[in-house]
Amino acid sequence: MKNLTDSFVSLGHWSSAGSFGFNTDILATNPINLSVVLGVLIFFGKGVLSDLLDNRKQRILNTIRNSEELRRGAIQQLEKAQARLRKVEAEADQFRMNGYSEIEREKLNLINSTYKTLEQLENYKNENIHFEQQRAINQVRQRVFQQALQGALGTLNSCLTNELHLHTISSNIGMFGAMKEITD
Fold first, then answer.
1. Is the dihedral of CA 25, 30, 33, 35 positive or negative?
2. How far apart are CA 120 and CA 45, in angstroms?
3. What family does this chain come from, according to its entry (predicted)?
């Protein structure tokens, strides 16, 4: 590639420009412009990505805390149900002669409903955690893909010569023309 300053200032090509002038050749200045834009994006994008990940982490932690609170509530309900079970058992001793089987059925129903409720709350917590994990993973995947794409574009732009760049642009213009003819 030519000297870096030749991309900005062209003294020998413009006889009427005097001693200073700007290079208006888009193909010669494009890699420099892209590298400046990519540098600015990387510099300012780090903070944004860090903030997004911190916010995502806080949301996940809040979800986990909420799930833990739901679990504690379920445990409290279980303890209340167990206290109620003990009460029912005490009543069963009093009414053993008058219908022990009826009390036993109530006890089993109470235990089953309590375990079902606890199981539903546990399933809800697990689904919520799984959903948040998947969403966080998808966001990180998108960020990684964007950064990889930016890196690939940077590498591609640094490897392109003027001739290769002109050839690529010409072939892309030809493809777009052919695509337009097909859609028309």
1. negative
2. 42
3. Belongs to the ATPase B chain family.
